[in-house]
Write a structure and sequence with these properties.
single chain, 235 residues, 4 strands
Amino acid sequence: MATFVRPPPLTSTSDQPPLFDGTTRLYTSYGCPYAQRVWITRNYKGLQDKIKLVPIDLQDRPAWYKEKVYPENKVPALEHNGKILGESLDLIKYVDASFEGTPLFPTDPAKKEFGEQLISHVNTFTRDLFLSLKGDAVQEASSAFEYLENALGKFDDGPFLLGELSFVDIAYIPFVERFQIVFAELFKHDITEGRPKLATWIKELNKIDAYTETKVDPQEVIDLFKERFLASSKI
């Protein structure tokens, strides 16, 4: 299999790609967990030739991005059919519904219902993880990881949150990926300890190229978290 080469991020000196020329573009940032959700979705559905990746350097972002592409000035954003759409969870649904490829939303009513429950909790999950960094991180993040461990026990027809891989796994994994790195490196704690289902979930996701191609550089995560979230601590 050919190795995926990441296009270089566009900066304040980069020219703007053509807008609304018929090309579908995913404006992303390699370090952003929200954008990573849509990037995984695109890859998993086999849309690499249908949706062009346009990485933006968020530390040196081009003025044209806010002025002409997406006034919110955030990633991800999707350019499709003469429109610019945003918000990562909405974009997973949109890409799943608008393009061919393996469906990411279950048809089984019980899985549908549980999937919606998990999605309604994902912002609380991520908020609790970030808040844990302000105190005894390992202790305070424990309930968030226990939530996932328990959720992974609901269906036994596969290692993922709804059995088979779905939009729910894609919503959670970018944040679990980052916090697994941070807890291991900065707090010497393995988030999968005593959580066998979580360990298997991460292991199985790491067998999927659509996901592994989007993973962040661990050192970049550590540096970012130290600077942005842990600056006042002794780490």
